[in-house]
Design goal:
Elements lengths: L2 E6 L1 H6 L9 H7 L16 H6 L2 E8 L16 H20 L3 E3 L3 H11 L20 E8 L7 H9 L2 E5 L19 H14 L2 E3 L5 H10 L4 E2 L17 H9 L4 E3 L3 H4 L10 H4 L3 H15 L5 E3 L25 H7 L4 H19 L3
Parallel strand pairs: 1-2, 2-4, 3-4, 4-5, 5-6, 6-7, 8-9
Helix pairs in contact: 6-7, 13-14
Length: 367
């Protein structure tokens, strides 16, 4: 089944992890044997060939570069200008992949419709079928998103980014930010954040509510009237952490017509995960747990119109911190069978795998 993944850090992996994502996944992992600078070395699960094998024909792909003020010990850049330069390097990688025929940027309704026709969605197929050969020569569509707005030196830079294809922005990432407060932080967005939201609304840029701390989340919804989604978030009722959405936040997003992408980072899926100690097998973290989270959202919404995939499977972790039944991102095609076993109907499964994101984009880009 044609699949949309609403959150992948492709350019970060290509540049900061130095991975040639065009290669077979086994080759990428082989080149990392013996490397210890990052915990997921040799355990990568994302490559462009594996996306094609999984029929993942459209992704939301990020630019990401955090600003860190003095005293902030998170990894990042010490000026907005440095962060901006980092995102421009990431943009250059996306453009290089376009030139190589590997990717194609999707930034309007016409482009979306043309790309969907190219991939010829097997709409009723929920079985595990090897699609790699069929999709081998197809470019993967990507919608450009900015994860954390710190790199926007001024609001003029947002307009510049929109001109090169930026279509979604999450105002914050981890910690305190220049425009909003993120995961593990507290506080409101303030006037500078309000200005960002107004400019996003003028440009019809999607607000990604992911990573906003509770205070900034509610403030953003109060001050933004454009399209809102959450690219990669799970449920606080199942894993009690501020990174997750509370039931009240989920209900508010449902009221705004948002789609929430379920993430496959193990610590967000199962409670009491200890980084560097827990294992997916030991914690019982598999794709069934993802279905638990989507079930919870559907129960709150009263329907299946607000769920999707936002796997984050290359978000600075690999097999050591993702469901144990995910060897590669191609294993997303196991989800339809799991949903069918839970009693979901074909139209519900279609919505989860692609339909809700498609409907959201068609509505957001209708004008």
């Amino acid at each position: 089944m044609f699949t949309i993944d609403a959150h992948l850090d492709l350019s970060m992996n290509a540049l900061e992890w130095n991975r040639d994502l065009r290669l077979p996944l086994s080759d990428i992992n082989d080149t990392e044997n013996g490397l210890t600078d990052k915990p997921d070395r040799g355990r990568a699960v994302v490559s462009l060939p594996e996306l094609r094998k999984g029929n993942v024909g459209l992704v939301v792909a990020t630019q990401i570069a955090r600003y860190v003020a003095p005293g902030n010990h998170l990894p990042g850049w010490h000026s907005a200008e440095q962060a901006w330069a980092q995102t421009q390097g990431q943009l250059a990688w996306y453009k290089a992949m376009e030139d190589a025929g590997e990717l194609v940027q999707i930034n309007d309704l016409n482009g979306l419709q043309h790309h969907l026709s190219l991939w010829e969605d097997p709409i009723d197929d929920i079985q595990n079928i090897e699609d790699g050969e069929k999709n081998e020569r197809k470019p993967i569509g990507y919608i450009l998103s900015l994860e954390g707005a710190d790199s926007l030196i001024t609001l003029e830079h947002l307009e510049r980014a929109h001109a090169y294809g930026l279509r979604a922005v999450g105002p914050a990432h981890y910690g305190p930010g220049r425009y909003a407060q993120g995961t593990d932080a507290r506080g409101l967005m303030g006037p500078k954040g309000h200005d960002l939201l107004r400019e996003m609304e003028r440009l019809n840029i999607i607000l990604d509510a992911t990573h906003l701390c509770d205070d900034s989340f509610w403030e953003a919804l109060d001050h933004f009237n454009g399209p809102v989604w959450a690219s990669h978030n799970n449920c606080r009722a199942l894993v009690d952490h501020n990174r997750q959405f509370s039931d009240e936040m989920i209900k508010a997003l449902v009221e705004r017509g948002a789609v929430i992408g379920l993430a496959l980072d193990a610590w967000m899926m199962v409670p009491h995960w200890q980084r560097g100690k827990s294992t997916p097998e030991g914690m019982g973290c598999n794709l069934e747990v993802m279905v638990d989270h989507l079930d919870h959202i559907c129960q709150l919404a009263g329907n299946t119109l607000h769920i999707g995939i936002g796997s984050d499977l290359d978000g600075a972790f690999g097999r050591e911190q993702c469901p144990y039944d995910v060897e590669t991102i191609a294993d997303l095609k196991k989800i339809p069978v799991l949903m069918e076993k839970r009693g979901y109907q074909i139209q519900d499964i279609q919505r989860m795998m692609h339909g809700n994101w498609m409907r959201f984009l068609q509505n957001a880009w209708a004008d």
